[in-house]
Structures are given as C-alpha cells and as structure tokens.
Fold these 2 entries.
Entry 1:
Amino acid sequence: AKDSGRNTVRFYAQVMESNIQERMWIEEELDYALKEQQFRVFYQPKMHIATGHITSAEALLRWFHPVRGLISPGEFIPIAEQTGQIVAIGEWVVKKVCEHLTRSTELGLPLLPIAVNVSPKQFQHPQFIYKLRQIFEETGVDPSFVEVEITETTLMDNTEETLNKLLLLKQIGVRIAIDDFGMGYSSLGYLKRFPVNALKIDQSFIREVHDESTAAIVTVMIALGHQLQMHVIAEGVETEAQLDFLRQHGCDEIQGYLLSKPMPLNEFRDFVRKNYG
Ligand code: C2E
Ligand code: CA
Ligand code: CA
Ligand code: CA
C-alpha cells in the first residue's frame, strides 16, 4: 500500500510536469501562430426556431499547427487568456470576421450578423473599443453586423468601467450577448444593469434538458430573458427532442450540431446560399 501511494505521487508529479511543459509549448507556439497565419475562423450558423431561417453565425477560432495538426480552442484559449496573448489573437479574429463580411458583400451574398467571442482580458483591455472602431473603419463594416459574446465573468467585474464600455458598444451599434448563461456564480442583478441583447443558455443545460429539474431551469431562463426584452438562444442543440422542447417553451434561436457543426468560410458561404431565406 505504501508503495502504491508513492507511485501515485510520482504519477501525479509526472502529469503535472507534462502539463507545465504543454502550457509552455503552447505559449511559445502561439506567438508564431499569428505571424505564420496558422489560425482560421470557422462559422457555426444559428437558426430562428419559429421560421426556420438562418439568422446569424458564431465565429469560432481554429488553430492548425504544422506539426501537431488541429488544436482546439479549449486547449489554447485559457492559456492565451492567462498570458495576455488573447488580446492580439482576439483582435485578429474581429479583423478576419470583418474582412469576411466585406468580401461576402462583394460576392453578393446575404449578409448575416456574426458573433465573436470576447474573453474577459480582451474586454478589459483599455484599447478594446478603440481597436474595434479602427477595424470597422478600415473594413467599412457596419458595427450592427457584429455581436460580442461575453461571459458572466466579464460582467462580474461590476464596475463603472464595464458599464461604460457596454454602453459605448451599444451606442456604436454592436450587439451584446451573454455566453454560457447559467454557468457563472454571479447574482442575476447585473442583468438589469447592463445593456444586453441576447442570452445564450449554456450547452450543459441543453444536454440535460430531458431531466425534469433541468427542464424547469431552462424554462425559467427563457422566461427571464424574455421578461428583460432579450433574445434567447440555446447552444449545443443536438437532437430533435431538444429542439421540440425549446420550441414549446418559446426559445428564439438554436445553435448546435443538429443544424450544423462549425465550418470553414467556403462551406459556410455555401450553407448560407442554400439555406438563407
Ligand atoms: P463557446 O463560445 O461556448 O462555443 C461553443 C462551443 O460548443 C464551440 O466549441 C462549438 O464548436 C461547440 N458546439 C457547438 N455546437 C455543439 C453541439 O451541438 N454539441 C457539442 N458538444 N458542442 C457544440 P469550440 O469551437 O471548441 O470552442 C470552445 C470555446 O473556445 C468556445 O466556447 C469559446 O469559449 C472559446 N473560443 C472559441 N473561439 C474563440 C475566440 O475567437 N475568442 C475567444 N476569446 N474564445 C474563443
Ligand atoms: Ca460563444
Ligand atoms: Ca457558449
Ligand atoms: Ca463554453
């Protein structure tokens, strides 16, 4: 028993060491990733439940490393958030999205608003709004075609500065959605204080919506959003049963594998051509 205990300790030490090495590797490689253009923006459509229309899409970052292949955002975004690299990466994402929007207009495609994920550090950066405006000016994109998805963590920083930034975004015309709603530990008080357009119910609730108590929570979340004049979106919708539940309870939009996985720009454009209406 004593021996196995010692082995366990050694095992954890090894795992921790390899985790640290992995983090250091990612941190170092992330610097090249931007320069060497290893990132791509994928798009996942959202559908209006009542009409079946495609209304918008979410931009999701993909990292194609020349040796390691595809590295998922879950692996590198939290590290980039800690090191501050997310500020430059996030700015690149907004720029790409705006360039894609401009090109879509040139191609005569129907223009759909695109939601971009903004991490807390990126949002809190003093130049955040300034950089956004600069990109809108450079690309000529109408800011009302861009939505920012922020998490409750960003709003928990319940300061005047956060409020002012959100009001400024609203004034510019940028839409604001709360991502992963229900996962935070903040009070609901911030909801009435901040100018938010949409609530995205976290996929962990949708996954368990067949369960009675989860269904009750989702029902209340939809009603809450509507009471506050917000649009309610369910993410991670994978089955017809989940869609049926959401339709019955008046949820506005869905996003998830049932409709489509996130796809590269060309595929997304084909999808819009085929399904827009
Ligand atoms: P998120 O913003 O909550 O995005 C939703 C995630 O759920 C995406 O994972 C998406 O591919 C996945 N998903 C969509 N539909 C389904 C479904 O039906 N079933 C399941 N199981 N999953 C589904 P992804 O693309 O791996 O991104 C993970 C997270 O990384 C995102 O979560 C977001 O927090 C972050 N992220 C991605 N791109 C960016 C970015 O450009 N900037 C920042 N700051 N964060 C990003
Ligand atoms: Ca999101
Ligand atoms: Ca989410
Ligand atoms: Ca998430």
Note: Strands lie at 39-48, 54-65, 69-71, 114-117, 146-151, 175-181, 198-201, 231-234, 253-254.
Entry 2:
Amino acid sequence: ASRFADVKLGPPIEVFAVNKACVDDPHPDKVNLTIGAYRTDEGKPWVLPVVRKTERQMAADETLNHEYLPVLGLEAFSSAATSMLLGPDHPAIAEGRAFGVQTLSGTGALRVGAEFLSRQLKYSTFYMSNPSWENHRLVFFNAGFTEFREYRYWDAANRTIDFSGLIEDLKAAPENSVIILHACAHNPTGCDPTHEQWEKIADVIKEKKLFPFFDSAYQGFASGDLDKDAWAVRCFVSRGFELVCAQSFAKNFGLYNERVGNLTMVLKDKQFVPQVKSQVTLIVRGMYSNPPNHGGRIVSTVLNNPQLFEEWKECIRTMANRILSMRSGLKQRLQALGTPGTWDHITTQIGMFSYTGLTPRQVEHLVNHYHVYLLKSGRINMCGVTSHNIDYLAKAIHETVL
Ligand code: PMP
C-alpha cells in the first residue's frame, strides 16, 4: 500500500481553473478576463521597455555574477522599495526605524510578515475584508495564525464599500488582531476607502489596539501615480503606527514570474531594528534561505537611476491609462445599449479589477454562450478588455443581463 493513499484531492484554485478553460477554448471570439495580469491593447503580455533595457545592460555587465544574495536580499533593492512606499523623505526612513526585506514577491512578503507576527509577537487572529484576495487566508494559516475573521467590505446593493459595516466589525475585533488592508486598488472589488474613511479606519485600529498589515500589490499601477497609490500607508505611518506592508513588483514592473517583493517594517524606534531583523533572518533562512537576484536587481537599478525611474513612471502611466480608458469605454457602451442596472461603478472602481455585480448565473451564461471568461463572483480583469473585443464584450453583457 502506498503511504500516499489517503491524501485527499485538494480543491482547484478557481482563477487558474477558469483561465485554463479559456486557454483551452478554441472559439475565436473568446475573452479572457480571469488572471490578474496586464495585457496590451493587442491582448499580449507586456515587457516594460525600461525592463528590457535594464536586462540588456545587466546581460552585458561582466562584473555581475550568480553569487548568493544575503538572506534579507539586495540592500539597494529593499531600501529603494521602502522609499518608494513611504516617499524618499519620510522621517521614519531618516530616523532609521523603517526598513525593507526582499521577499518572493508580494505573497512571500505576506508570508514572512505573517510568520514574524505569529512567532515573535504571538498574534493569532487575522482579519481580511469580505471579499478579499482569497490567498490571504491560506498564507496566514500556513504562517501560524489560527483564528480567521472577516470584516464587511462590499455593499452589493449599492456596489460600493459597506463602510459602517467595516467600522462596526473592526470595533468588535479583539486586541492585537492583525487587520489586512489593501493599500490601493482593492482586489477584487476595485473600491478603495476615501481619505476621510482611511482616517476613521486608523482611528479604530488605534483605539482598539489592532495591528495594521498593508498589502500593496498595485502601487503606481492603480492610478498611474506612485504617491497617490501609497496615500493610505503613508497616512498610517505619519500617524505613528507600527506596521508592516507587503509590496509586490509583479504588476507595476510586469515582473510576475520573477517574484520580486519587499516587506517594509515600520517600528517606533530604531533601537529595536537589529533584533527584529535578526528574527526575520531566521524565518527566511529556514524557509528558502535567500531570495533570487534577477528581478530585484532590475527593480533596484531602475528605482536608483533618475533617468530610468522617469522611463518607468511613463510605463506605469501607460498601463493605468489603458485600463482607465477601457473602463470608460465599457461603461459608455453598456449605457448606450441601455443595459439594465447602473454601470457607474465600472469607472469609480480603480485598478485592475472590477466587481461587475454580475450574478453567478449570469457569469455562467457569459462563459457558456459568449466564451467570456470571468470569476463566479463577477470579478473581471479590466486588462483583458481591448479595443478589439470591447464591443463584443459589452454586447455579451447586455444580452446576458437583459
Ligand atoms: N495581494 C494582492 C491583493 C494581490 O492581488 C496579489 C496578486 N494577485 C498579491 C498580493 C501577490 O502577488 P505576487 O505574489 O504575485 O506579488
């Protein structure tokens, strides 16, 4: 008998399963609105020109080698990533109480951060928004958290944030609960709190002695502006919170498979930094020993070079603007067709995703009759919309909703 005979088949991961169904579909008009990855208006993946250029320079540089990086990664990368998040002139950086750790993309940063909070600070309860990026749950459980709770976030009737529900749930959270907050471009709803709402969230987190854990997977990609997209994190840091923030460079650099991420940690005082860093070092050492070089080197080269940095900012504006124009194009078409319901949320939502409000039955209909692939929740990746398929998509949604 096999030792593996009793292993149960795990559930499929929806987003990968639906994507595969689309890839396998031979229909010429199929539309893939599943995986969160940027596509050009031709529906193709995009290697940012500034990334290509930097890779060429790296390939030609005979001084580079394949030696191991330190356990906490490239210092030039992690400090640039932390500056990008907090703003280069933030006092927390000058005071030496904010630092970064290079991680295996945003997911790795979430894991290292969660594991530190669970092992070192003995936190055991985490909250995520309902709905949220579904992987938060698995990552936090695997990192040692034992208590999972949700705070209300989505108001389905009004297709907006259920802010009073959110505040009520946070107010009821036990002390030291870790609150996962999407820094910008909330996945999957595309709805972010206003500045005023963020201030209120911060008030409750402070009053109830909760711990803010930001997840920043879309800085710059959401609005096209790095500062705007970091507003919430900077607001908390300026108010004196200790916090951690997982940063992903998958979307804003188009470096999905290179696994480039950073965990920024902000402490009250720099005297605690060496001890904290030493414990993070042990977590990483025991998990994967040290991070890969290629993507971190690209990002650090670009962020640390003023000319390349400008070229990169142009790239993120290009991506953000294409998404914004697809949002308004889709809304206009649905309104012109007289599709029942309101569609303003398509343009008020921000980032890669839109929570359309389509029901599971409507989603099924879109997949089966129109070969338009999206998640059961009605979440669509706006990057899958192009000027070639936008009319077809609007018509498919219209006929489905009618
Ligand atoms: N958090 C959120 C909210 C995300 O949407 C994503 C990417 N889908 C991630 C974290 C992590 O992505 P990655 O590990 O590829 O950086």
Note: The chain has a mean pLDDT of 97.
